[in-house]
Amino acid sequence: MGQLSEPQLRRLEEHKYSCASTSLLDPCMQRWWCWLVEQCPLTLAPNLITITGLIINIVTSLLLCYYSPDAKQEVPRWACFLCALGLFIYQSLDAIDGKQARRTGTSSPLGELFDHGCDSLSTVFVSLGVCCSVRLGTLPYWMFFQCMMAVTLFYCAHWQTYVSGTLRFGMVDVTEAQFGVMAIHLISVLFGSGFWSLKVPMLLIPYKCVPTLIGVVAAAVALYNNFKIILVERGAGRNGSTVAVSPMLHRCRC
Fold first, then answer.
1. Is 63 helix (H, G, I), strand (E, B) or coil?
2. Is residue 251 part of a domain?
3. Which residues are known catalytic residues?
4. pLDDT 10s digits, 175-219
């Protein structure tokens, strides 16, 4: 009970990672990621890289939650800086764990599954951190919508990969979104989290709503592309990708 069946185990053994990307920032970041992984000793386990990045991201996000548990209070600027730094470290380590696995010949479907499981947890904490940084709790319906939008995008990408067997990144996707979140934290560092309560000239909405509105446009494009594949493709995971829990944040390899 609860164990994988023989066909599922067979698919797990046959699984091959497949990725397609048109991301604007990934080609630029690949230089940094490829250099970074070369600095890692061959004895360093890829899963240790994965869990280290996740822990850093969770701790820095929970720091904001500590100072603003309902996302309504102003948070210290240094905490916003640490959250931006933690997200950058997480992004970098998440990008190189697979590269390290290939360097050391230890890549496996279960390692990818572990990576994706950590990514699914990270999505929750990244969303909470940015809500605290802009004090989105003062607009609870906007906060709920923002968090649900992030989770929906995450699992729709998983669904698309389940159907097609290939993980696809659009021009504005995960890397761009992560840098957008870092930029939000850094704006809070420079101007304080109270800045986000000011009104946008002429639009008469607080600045804290602007990132969500921009996200809606990006989400609409991403959902259209995902569902176009989901509704057209037939079958489930040609490369055995049905074992992947949440490949949204997985990076293409060098």
1. helix
2. no
3. 116
4. 899 999 999 999 999 999 999 999 998 888 999 999 999 888 988
pTM of the model: 0.84
- Cα–Cα distance between 79 and 67 in angstroms, integer? 9
Burial class (CB in 10 A: 0-12, 13-18, 19+), 219: middle
Give the CATH number of the domain where residue 176 resides. Answer: 1.20.120.1760
DSSP state letter for 206:
B
Q: How far apart are the first and last CA of the chain?
A: 39
Contact (Cβ atoms closer than 8 angstroms) between residue 92 and residue 33: yes
Contact predicate 77/192, CB 8 Å: yes
**Alpha helical stretches, state H, 2-137:** 6-14, 26-38, 46-67, 77-104, 109-134
Instruction: Point out which residues pair with 167 in neighbouring strands.
Output: 19
Type and span of the H or E element at 20:
strand 19-21
Q: At 24, is the secondary structure helix, strand, or coil?
A: coil
Considering the domain boundaries, does residue 11 fall inside one?
A: no
Would residue 133 count as lying in a domain? Answer: yes
Q: Which domain holds residue 79?
A: 25-241
Give domain status of residue 161, yes or no: yes
DSSP label of 204: -
Q: Comparing 20-34, 88-102, 103-117, 165-179, which segment has the lowest mean pLDDT?
A: 103-117
Query: To which residue do tokens 């002429």 refer?
Result: 202
Say how many domains are in the chain: 1
Q: Label residue 63 exposed, middle or buried (CB < 10 Å: 0-12, 13-18, 19+).
A: buried
| Angle, CA 152 vertex, CA 150 and CA 157 arms, to 5° | 100
